[in-house]
Specification:
With 299 residues, the protein is mainly α. The protein contains 13 helices and no strands. The chain is globular. 45% of the residues are buried.
């Protein structure tokens, strides 16, 4: 039995929560480093997932370990790039860059997998690309290294989506979550080791988020990292519930509400105001993504 109304409510609630916790990264970026954040968040999230798996009677061992490991590495890389950008740009713009992933899914499917594409989906890609240009506005000097990080994250997100669909479709949600957080933890550990050897001078505040190595975490850093860990699990759980209640193409369209919530939370919490051009670009990206999510055949 499908319950589209319940599914819509679930995914919108999940996106509202994820938009909120992503906006709080600014607080964490002021106190610690990106790599330390991912390492500590993983240390908090994995025990929670173990408890959930035991309560729900689900196994965490993957059916295809190599496929899950590759998918986890791709998705973790995507999130490292996305979270790294949040310290330097409004969360609405970063989320818009990440949500170009369906465009890259289509391009990779065509160029690498030989999938046929019709005019409707090609038009959606063109509209989405136009939206990206409006958000970044390279002709107005808006294109910076930080701006490219969410787009690079979108490429890895697209590769992870293809890997999920092709090789991990039979894995449980908790298994994929466990692999994802493990991948983030490994990235965090690697980053901390590299920075401990390199020892670069990190700027103060959020500007030093990428270059700041391990520092003694204070209570505030641990608290907001725990909020991130719990919020991520709940948000993804709500999204997963939505996919169980309705067709995937129906749910995927509502995922784009994250762009709206990201812009809203950025404005409410930090006074981040997106330009009119950026808002138009986000609207185009949302429209493009909905068309690609509801694709049928090669249309």
């Amino acid at each position: 039995e499908t319950r589209p109304l319940a599914a819509a409510g679930s995914v919108v609630a999940g996106m509202a929560l994820i938009g909120l916790i992503d906006s709080l990264i600014v607080l964490i970026a002021d106190m610690g480093g990106l790599w330390q954040f991912h390492l500590i968040r993983t240390a908090m999230a994995l025990p929670l997932l173990l408890v959930l798996a035991r309560v729900m009677g689900q196994r965490l061992r993957p059916l295809r370990p190599v496929a899950v490991a590759i998918r986890s590495g791709l998705l973790a890389t995507s999130m490292v790039l996305y979270f790294g950008a949040l310290a330097f740009m409004p969360v609405g713009e970063a989320a818009a860059g990440l949500f170009t992933a369906p465009i890259f899914v289509l391009l990779i499917s065509v160029l690498a997998l030989g999938e046929r594409v019709g005019p409707r989906r090609l038009a959606a890609v063109a509209i989405g690309f136009a939206g990206v240009l409006l958000v970044l506005r390279p002709e107005a000097g808006g294109l910076k290294a930080a701006s490219l990080m969410p787009l690079a994250g979108a490429v890895f997100y697209a590769l992870a989506a293809i890997a999920t669909r092709r090789y991990c479709a039979r894995e449980s949600t908790l298994t994929l979550l466990f692999g994802f957080f493990t991948g983030l933890g490994l990235w965090g550990a690697l980053g901390c080791v590299v920075l401990a050897i390199w020892q670069p001078v990190a700027p103060e505040g959020a500007a030093g988020f990428l270059l700041r190595g391990w520092t003694a975490p204070d209570t505030a850093f641990l608290f907001w990292t725990m909020v991130q860990a719990v919020g991520s699990i709940i948000g993804i759980g709500l999204l997963t519930r939505a996919y169980l209640l309705a067709e995937a193409s129906f749910v995927a369209g509502f995922e784009y509400s994250l762009l709206i919530f990201a812009a809203l939370w950025g404005w409410v919490l930090w006074g981040q105001v997106l330009s009119p051009w950026a808002l138009v670009g986000i609207a185009l990206i949302i429209g493009s993504g909905i068309v690609l999510a509801r694709r049928g055949g090669t249309g």
